[in-house]
Amino acid sequence: MNVHKIEEEINQLKIKLLFLQNRLQFIQQNCDHQFQGNQYYETCVKCRKVNVLYY
Fold first, then answer.
1. Beta bridge partners of 37
2. How far, CA to CA in Å, does 33 sit from each of 12, 38, 49?
3. Which of 1, 9, 16, 29 lies at 20 to 30 Å from 54 by C-alpha?
4. How far apart are alpha carbons 41 and 22 in whole angstroms?
5. Per-residue model confidence as pLDDT tens digits over 27-48
6. Of 55, 11, 51, 18, which Cα lies nearest the Cα of 34?
7. What would the pLDDT profile of 10-25 be if each residue is shown by its tens digit?
8. Cα separations (Å) of 6 from 3, 14, 19, 36?
9. With helix as H, strand as E and coil as C, how does the chain read?
């Protein structure tokens, strides 16, 4: 592989990653959360969103 093909593949993967991050954020914002966890953090069993409860 030459440098240009590698750079193009990196750019395509960055675009896909950004799309997936935005989609995940949208899903987590619109989820009817059901949290489970302990005194330090809780995780939604539906969308896997994490809430930190203790620092």
1. 42
2. 32, 16, 8
3. 29
4. 23
5. 999 999 999 999 999 999 999 9
6. 51
7. 999 999 999 999 999 9
8. 5, 12, 20, 42
9. CCHHHHHHHHHHHHHHHHHHHHHHHHHHHCCCCCEEECCCEEEECCCCCEEECCC
Q: Look up the pTM and report it.
A: 0.76
**Average pLDDT value over all residues in the chain:** 95
Q: Is the C-alpha dihedral spanning 5, 7, 13, 43 positive or negative?
A: positive
Whole-angstrom Cα distance, residue 29 to residue 49? Answer: 9
